[in-house]
């Protein structure tokens, strides 16, 4: 069963609590939280304070996607704020295993993310240590960008290695996911679809989620 993780980046931040409740009722599996620092990506968004304040709003796992430099310095703060999954970019740290271990030591599920131009081979050595691999299908920084088609073979490659090695991490995709692109991701092996604009830009979030899943 494919999971759906609405990205609150495209929500109305003036009523963030209601927006989260709305997608929870609409059938979301995770709430995807995009953390940006204005250095690793050219945008600034959410800190641990916001994660802490949305934590009591929902029972769903908070899937916290760190797009920040020096992620090791903030893992503990996001874990204590209530993150259930924390993903770090391979490109953001030279000590990836250490970052993953720090996440696990907090009792949180650990994920690793790669940008569209980063080869899958660079995360091959960490596959056995993670709960989730997130493949960016846009360059991170903004919602509403166009899906980068060349990532699809990379989804297939990661899914192949997972099967070959008997591993069970989830494969998540993020960026430009909508009713036209979701199927190609799921067919290639994606288990979790992050979608921001395709859900929050629609009035009826239940219908928006169903439309994406119906086309997979
Ligand atoms: C991009 C973020 C995504 C973004 C997806 O940097 O990581 O989670 O919100 O937005 P859409 O679905 O609109 O491409
Ligand atoms: Zn994201």
TrEMBL record:
Enzyme type, top EC level: isomerase
Cofactor(s) needed by this chain: Zn(2+); Co(2+); a divalent metal cation; Mn(2+)
Enzyme Commission code(s) on record: 5.1.3.1
Reactions accelerated catalytically: D-ribulose 5-phosphate = D-xylulose 5-phosphate
Record-level GO BP terms: pentose catabolic process; pentose-phosphate shunt
Keywords annotated in UniProt: Carbohydrate metabolism, Cobalt, Isomerase, Manganese, Metal-binding, Zinc
Coiled coil: none
Binding site for a divalent metal cation: 32, 34, 65, 174
Chain's role: Catalyzes the reversible epimerization of D-ribulose 5-phosphate to D-xylulose 5-phosphate.
Protein name: Ribulose-phosphate 3-epimerase
Gene (name only): rpe
């Amino acid at each position: 069963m494919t999971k759906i993780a609405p990205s609150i980046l495209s929500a109305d931040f003036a009523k963030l609590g209601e927006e989260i409740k709305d997608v929870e009722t609409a059938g979301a599996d995770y709430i995807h939280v995009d953390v940006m620092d204005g250095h690793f990506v050219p945008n600034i968004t959410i800190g641990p304070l916001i994660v802490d304040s949305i934590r009591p709003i929902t029972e769903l796992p908070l899937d916290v996607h760190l797009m920040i430099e020096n992620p090791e310095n903030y893992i503990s703060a996001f874990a204590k704020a209530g993150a259930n999954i924390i993903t770090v970019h391979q490109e953001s740290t030279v000590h990836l295993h250490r970052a993953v271990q720090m996440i696990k030591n907090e009792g949180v599920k650990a994920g690793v993310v790669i940008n569209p131009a980063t080869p899958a081979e660079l995360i091959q050595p960490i596959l056995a240590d993670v709960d989730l691999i997130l493949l960016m299908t846009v360059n991170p920084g903004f919602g509403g960008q166009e899906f980068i088609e060349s990532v699809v073979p990379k989804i297939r490659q990661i899914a192949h290695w997972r099967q070959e090695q008997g591993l069970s991490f989830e494969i998540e995709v993020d960026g430009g996911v909508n009713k036209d692109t979701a199927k190609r991701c799921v067919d290639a092996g994606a288990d979790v679809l992050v979608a921001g604009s395709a859900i929050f830009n629609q009035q009826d979030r239940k219908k928006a989620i169903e439309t994406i899943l119906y086309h997979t």
